[in-house]
Amino acid sequence: MGFSLGHYLFESFLTFRQYRVLQRPSPPAVLSKEVSPDVFTKSQAYGRAKAKFTIIEGLWEQVQNLAFLHFDVLPKLWSWTGSLLLDYAPARFSGEISHSILFVITFLGIQQVLSLPSRLYYTFVLEEHFGFNKQTPGLFVTDLIKTNALTTVLLPPVLAGFLKIVQKTGNQFFFYLWAFAAGLQVCMIAIYPTFILPLFNKLSPLEEGPLKEQVEKLAASLKFPLHELFIIDGSKRSAHSNAYFFGLPWKKHIVLYDTLIEKSEPEEILAVLGHELGHWKLGHTTRLLFITQVSLTHIHEAFCALY
Q: Are the C-beta atoms of 108 and 27 separated by less than 8 Å?
C-alpha cells in the first residue's frame, strides 16, 4: 500500500510541475513566430484541464487500489469465481486454468465499470469542451461492446497458453513464456491490421499525388521499408490528428489520420511523420524492447535466487 501511494504522489508531483509550465502566458521565444497567441492560450488551457483530470483520475484509481488491498478484494474474488465454476460449470472446467480465465475476465469487468465515469467525463465533457470529441454515445457503446467481445475471445487462449507453460516447465517457465510472448507479439502485428483494426476504423489507400510522392521520398531517404500508405478515418471519434506506422521489420505501412491531412499543409504532415520515422531510424523501439527483455531476465534471476 505504501508503494502504491508513493507512486501516485510522485506521478502527481510531476504533473503539478508540468501544470506550472502550462500556466505560462506566452510561448518560448523559439516558438513565438510559429504559434499565434490565441492558439498558444487554447493549448495551455487544454493542457491544464488534462493535468487536473490526470490528478483526479489518479486519486480515484489510488482509492481503488488501497480499497482492493485493504479489503482483500482479489482473494475474495478468486474464491467467488471458483465457487461459480463448482456450482454451475461442468467438471472439466473446474481446473486452475478455467478458474484463472474467469477470475481475470471478472476482474477486468469490475475495473471497466469503475473506470467508466472517468472515460465518459474525459470524452463527453473535457474533450467536448475543447472541440475535440467527435464520438457519439452510440459509437462509444459500440466500441465498448466490440472491445469486450474481443477480450472475451482472445484472452482465454492466451492466458491458457501462459498458464500451461508455467505448469509444464516449472522453474524454467520464464524463458518459455518469453518465447511465447515474442511469438504472440509477431502474430498480433500480422493479425491486428487485418482482423481487429477494421472493426473500429476504415483504412483507405492514400491517393496518388504530391503528398504521397513526398512521403515516399522521405521514407526512401531514411531507407524505411515502406510497403503501403493509408488514410484512417480518425475523425469519426476525435478531431486530434496523428500519424504512425506498423508492420514487420521488412514490410512497413504508414497511416495518416484524415484529420491531419485536412488541417495541415504537406510540409507539416511530413514534420509529424518525420518525428515518428525518427524513432524507427534511431532504433528507439528496438532499444526499448531490448532493455525491457534484459530487465525481465534480471527480475527472473532475482526470483530464482530467492526461491
A: no
Say which of 57, 61, 128, 276 is annotated catalytic. 276
What is the enclosing helix (H) or strand (E) of 255? strand 251-257
Residue with the three cell numbers 469490475: 110
Structure confidence by residue, pLDDT tens digits, 85-142: 998 888 888 889 999 999 999 999 999 999 999 999 999 999 999 999 999 999 999 9
Q: Compute the half-sphere exposure of residue 240: CA atoms within 13 Å on the CB side of its CA.
A: 12
pLDDT of 249-279, one tens digit each?
Answer: 888 899 999 999 999 999 999 999 999 999 9
Residue 94 has phi, psi (to 5 degrees) of -95, 5
Q: How much of the chain exceeds pLDDT 70, in percent? A: 96
Map residue 207 onto helix, strand or coil.
coil
**What is the phi-psi region of residue 254: left when phi exceeds 0, alpha when psi lies from -120 to 50, beta otherwise?**
beta
Query: What average pLDDT does the chain have?
Result: 91
Q: Give the torsion sign (CA, 286, 287, 288, 292).
A: positive
Cα 99 to the chain's mean position, in Å? 27
- Smallest Cα–Cα separation from 114: which of 73, 77, 72, 61? 61
- Count of CB atoms within 10 A of residue 91's CB? 8
Q: Are 247 and 228 in contact (CB under 8 A)?
A: no
Query: For residues 224 and 217, what is the distance between their CA atoms, to the nearest angstrom?
Result: 10
User: 213 an active-site residue?
Assistant: no
Pick from 262, 228, 234: which is nearest to 247 by CA? 228
Whose CA is closest to 116, among 61, 59, 55? 61
pLDDT-based confidence at 182, cuts 50/70/90? Answer: confident
Handedness of CA 119, 108, 76, 11 (dihedral sign): negative
